[in-house]
Specification:
16 helices, 4 strands, two-stranded antiparallel ribbon, mainly alpha, globular, 419 residues
């Protein structure tokens, strides 16, 4: 898959037009980028659905590999939408349906014996709905003889109110396509065989018909969820209307998403925490070993909304006045600082992603004592932390209400991580 690296410097040298920005215009661009990125997520998810249908119709190593590639391609635009979290309640209320993690995969399908069984935190951690047609959840008997989108969404997802009972979304599909990654901090992703989807006597690991039903039902849910968010950011949609309703609050929503994703969510929970624990189970895309691309695209999403420019999956551009233009009119030096720091972060993300693409897996980077891996991860973490400090200065410069960004014990109270 061809992947494009964009930096703010490259955009400036590429003769992006200068915009005389108003807050309303910046919000228009922000909403347009959101709509385009969610629409690209839907387009690529539809391609994933087609690849899964091809796998189901003819399970082979080739069709399984194609479905996995389609999943990876679908993650590229979606991860660039994560910057719309934290500041937009409509997105926050919805996001858990498509991208919740980590998940206790034993809820869904078979797992290795080393995974263990039920825990005090989650008695359903190894219930394996694919292998069991009758379940008991919260004291209620559940008929799971037919695996449908409704069973997954209404009964299994967050069963008994437990957040790690993630039964839907990208990561449930990821697990079904790859299976567990049992390589620890050695290279290698999950190795589920294509025969797990073969009907009849050649089925491996049992229940191939139910596994297919689960995979297709989870994919149908992903499509309907993404359709919902595309509509929310379209003209007249609820998310667009909410962000446009109060211009100052709209700009606060943008900066809240930028700062919270940069600091607590990405630098902390997704990157620094896993490195502190040397634990590949803390990877965002742990089954596919695609975490490096998720990190890269999260960083790119922050840059997109600041600059007011998004490159669509078809290569076309959505662009207009961005927060950068607003800041530049107030304090050109501060805008230059923010633009430069975004470049530094994305250079570090590029180094990390390129290393993983060239054989130095993110799993390996997390290994205790791996100085090269630690440096790659921490360069990106430090860039994210540094750019958050400038986002805080931008909030002050624009005379907006103070924003409390998402935090993380891994950054704010490291000792608590080991308690």
């Amino acid at each position: 898959m061809k992947r494009t690296t964009l930096t703010a410097t490259a955009l400036i040298l590429g003769a992006v037009p200068a915009f005389a920005a108003t807050k309303g215009e910046v919000l228009d661009t922000y909403a347009d980028i959101g709509h385009a990125a969610y629409e690209d997520s839907l387009i690529t998810a539809r391609a994933l659905s087609g690849a899964i249908d091809a796998l189901v119709a003819n399970p082979t190593e080739v069709t399984l590999a194609a479905a996995r590639e389609a999943w990876i391609a679908a993650r590229e635009p979606y991860q660039q939408t994560e910057v719309y979290r934290f500041g937009n309640p409509i997105v926050d209320d919805w996001e858990g349906k498509v991208n919740a993690w980590p998940l206790d995969e034993g809820l869904i399908d078979y797992v290795d014996a080393s995974y263990g069984g039920p825990t005090d935190e989650n008695p359903f951690a190894s219930v394996n709905v694919i292998a069991n047609e009758q379940l008991t959840i919260a004291g209620q008997e559940v008929d799971a003889s037919d695996i449908t989108p409704e069973l997954i969404s209404d009964t299994l997802n967050e069963a008994d109110g437990i957040e790690t009972n993630v039964a839907r979304g990208y990561h449930a599909i990821e697990f079904l396509l790859w299976g567990q990654d049992l390589n620890g901090t050695d290279p290698g992703a999950g190795e589920r065989p294509h025969t797990d989807f073969v009907q009849g006597d050649d089925c491996t690991n049992g229940n191939c018909d139910r596994r297919v039903d689960y995979l297709q039902s989870a994919t149908d849910l992903l499509l309907s969820d993404l359709e919902e968010m595309v509509a929310a950011w379209d003209e007249g949609g609820a998310a667009r209307e909410a962000v446009m309703d109060d211009e100052d609050q709209g700009i606060i929503a943008i900066l809240t998403g930028m700062g919270s994703l940069s600091y607590g969510e990405q630098a902390g929970e997704r990157m620094r925490l896993g490195l502190m624990l040397n634990d590949p189970e803390e990877e965002h895309d742990c089954f596919s070993d695609n975490t490096h691309r998720s990190h890269y695209n999260d960083g790119l999403g922050v840059q997109n909304v600041y600059l007011g420019r998004y490159e669509r999956v078809d290569g076309s551009l959505v662009e207009g006045p961005g927060v950068s233009d607003l800041v530049a009119e107030s304090n050109a030096a501060l805008d230059e600082e923010m633009t430069r720091k975004l470049d530094i972060t994305m250079a570090a993300m590029t180094d990390l992603s390129d290393a993983a693409e060239n054989g130095f897996a993110y799993d390996q980077m997390l290994e205790a004592g791996n100085e090269e891996g630690e440096a790659l991860i921490m360069n990106a973490v430090n860039g994210l932390i540094d750019q958050t400090a400038t986002i805080e200065r931008i909030v002050s410069e624009l005379e907006l209400d103070m924003i409390e960004f998402e935090g993380s014990d891994s950054l704010d109270n490291p000792n608590a991580v080991f308690q």
